[in-house]
Amino acid sequence: MMVAKGKVIRGTREWAVVNIDCCTGCPHDCRYCYARYDAVEKRGLLSTADWRECRVRSEDVERIQPLYPGQVMFPTTHDILPENLDACIKVIDHLLRAGNRVLVVSKPHLDCVQELCRVFTSRKENLLFRFTITARDPELLSFWEPGAPVYSERKASLSHAFNKGFQTSVSVEPMLDTADVVEMAHELLPYVTHSIWLGTMNKIDKRVRIDSDEVVRQVERIRAGQDDLVIQRIYQQLYREPLVRWKESIKIIMGLQLAKKPGTDT
Asked: FRET pair for 41, CA 20 to 30 Å: which of 31, 139, 165, 211?
């Protein structure tokens, strides 16, 4: 299929004009994480053990934020955790006070989401939650996202934000279980007001450390599960759902129009 020519807007740039963070490291320790790869493997700034600890950068927490010319994503290189929740609340507050529309992205901890909803209940019109929910299978989640919440907690977080009247969306990127992703999407859609995004695992050869036979097996499973024919079948089952949207990895396979400017495919 033909794909529109021109510079491809990828990753977080599809959703936001600017990315904001306030911490270094993440105990979720996802094997495919681009931020972990960049800090540990590519640049050698942190050891693997150091990456698993979240360190708050106070200067970024206290920074007064300007009004940006489009949606702002927070966070991108770490997550919102019980141990950094106060810092994250302060950053979100600074962004909202400046008049920004804030996309809050997280593999959500329920207690954190409950507190975010309580604190920002009067400003929910400028806050959009996007919860990363990549599979229902506990074995797949524990392998690929060993420190992150289980599926039931992520779904409960989505339900809580929805019931509190917040705008909600879901990111299924990467799809860790393409055999189940259609059923999972239908299970989550009743709690989604904005969108549910599907995407593949990208740059596996670079980002995933192949250090055991089990990793080899899991990577082969992911590759087989995001073969073009598999993606086409998923697309055919979900493209009529008005809230289902496709990341650039799937748009390229399906020959769909790509975003041309950052923050325009929100």
From this structure: 139
DSSP secondary structure string, 14-27? GT-SEE---EE--T
Domain ranges in the chain?
11-254
Reply yes or no: is the peptide bond before residue 174 cis, omega within 30 of 0.
yes
CA 171 – CA 54 distance, rounded (Å): 23
Q: If you average pLDDT over every residue of the chain, what do you get?
A: 95
d(C-alpha 87, C-alpha 62), whole Å? 9
CB 9 within 8 A of CB 48: no
Q: How many residues does the chain have?
A: 266
Whether 239 shows a pLDDT value over 50: the answer reads yes
Beta strands per DSSP E along the chain: 18-19, 23-24, 55-56, 72-74, 102-106, 127-132, 167-172, 195-198, 244-246
- Reading the block at residue 48, the tokens are 């693997």
Here the tokens at position 208 are 């995933």
Q: Are 47 and 40 in contact (CB under 8 A)?
A: yes
Assess whether pLDDT exceeds 90 at residue 4.
Answer: no
Residue 183 is inside which H or E element, if any? Answer: helix 181-188
Domain 11-254 homologous superfamily, CATH? pyruvate-formate lyase- activating enzyme (3.80.30.10)
Note whether 134 and 91 are within 8 A (CB).
Answer: no
Instruction: Using DSSP, state whether 170 is helix, strand or coil.
Output: strand
The 10s digit of each residue's pLDDT in 156-177 is: 999 999 999 999 999 999 999 9
Query: How much is the pLDDT for 165?
Result: 99
In the block, tokens 């809580």 appear at 160
